[in-house]
Write a structure and sequence with these properties.
Number of helices: 9
CATH architecture of the largest domain: Up-down Bundle
CATH topology of the largest domain: Glutathione S-transferase Yfyf (Class Pi), Chain A, domain 2
Distance between the termini: 26 Å
Helix content: 40-55%
Low-confidence stretches: none
Largest sheet: 5 strands, mixed
Structural class: alpha+beta
Strand order of the largest sheet: 4-3-1-2-5
Radius of gyration: 18 Å
Order of helices and strands: EHEHEEHHHHHHHE
Strand content: 5-15%
Number of domains: 2
Mean pLDDT: 95
Number of strands: 5
Length: about 220
C-alpha cells in the first residue's frame, strides 16, 4: 500500500456512462467528498489504473492513505460514512434493501448486459434477456406503489444504487421501455435523471492522460 502523496485529494478513475461509476459519483457529490478525477475509456485503460486494480473496471478510488476501493458500493459507503447530509444510509438498515441491490447487481445486470450488448455476448434471442430484466422492473414498480422512492418518501442509498442500471435498461430501447405499463418506475426514474445531482455528475470531462492538469471533482 503506497500513500497517495501527490495530491491532497483521493484519485477517482471513472467512465462517465458506466452505471457503477455513476452511482459512485452521485454518492461522492452528495457527501461533498472532492477528488481528483481521471476520466478514462475502458477499451484503452491507463496502466496507472490497472496497476491499482488489475480487474480493469471503474470506479477505482485511490485514497490518500494508499488504500484502493475498486467496488462501487464500497466507494458509496466510504463517502456517505464520512458525510451523509440526507441520511441516505438509512435504507441500508433493512434486509430488503440488501436483497434488492443484490438482485440488481446479480441477475438483472447479467440479463441487462446480454440484452443491451447482445452482439458482444453472441446472444441469439435478446428478447429472452429483456423479459428476465422485466421481472426486476416489475418488482421495483411494486415497491413504488405506496411511496415516491423505493425505501420511503425520499431518495436513499437504495435508489442511487439501482437507478443507473434501470436507466441503462431504458436506453437500450427507449420507445419500447416507455410503452411498458410500469408507471411507478418511469416516474421514479424521471425524477432521478432530471435531478440537479444527476445532471451535475454527468458533465462531460476530457479523457485523462498522464501529465494532464489536475481536475477536481465535483
Amino acid at each position: 500500500m503506497v500513500p497517495n502523496k501527490k495530491n491532497k485529494y483521493p484519485i477517482l478513475y471513472s467512465f462517465r456512462r458506466c452505471p457503477y461509476a455513476i452511482r459512485s459519483r452521485m454518492a461522492l457529490v452528495k457527501s461533498q467528498q472532492s477528488c481528483v478525477l481521471r476520466e478514462v475509456i475502458l477499451r484503452d485503460k491507463p496502466k496507472s489504473m490497472t496497476d491499482l486494480s488489475p480487474k480493469g473496471t471503474v470506479p477505482v478510488l485511490l485514497l490518500e492513505s494508499g488504500e484502493v476501493l475498486d467496488e462501487s458500493l464500497d466507494v458509496m459507503y466510504w463517502a456517505l460514512e464520512k458525510n451523509d447530509p440526507e441520511n441516505w444510509l438509512r435504507s441500508q438498515k433493512a434486509k430488503r434493501s440488501e436483497d434488492l441491490i443484490n438482485k440488481n447487481d446479480g441477475d438483472f445486470k447479467f440479463h441487462l448486459d446480454r440484452y443491451k450488448y447482445s452482439s458482444r455476448f453472441k446472444v441469439i434471442n435478446k428478447k429472452e434477456h429483456r423479459d428476465e430484466c422485466l421481472k426486476f422492473i416489475k418488482e421495483i414498480n411494486d415497491e413504488l406503489k405506496a411511496k415516491e422512492y423505493i425505501y420511503d418518501k425520499d431518495v436513499s442509498f437504495l435508489d442511487i444504487a439501482i437507478m443507473p442500471f434501470v436507466r441503462q435498461f431504458r436506453i437500450a430501447d427507449t420507445e419500447w421501455f416507455d410503452s411498458q405499463p410500469y408507471e411507478n418506475v418511469k416516474i421514479w426514474l424521471k425524477n432521478l435523471i432530471e435531478s440537479k445531482l444527476f445532471n451535475a455528475i454527468m458533465v462531460k470531462y476530457p479523457l485523462w492522460k498522464e501529465d494532464d492538469e489536475i481536475v477536481i471533482f465535483p
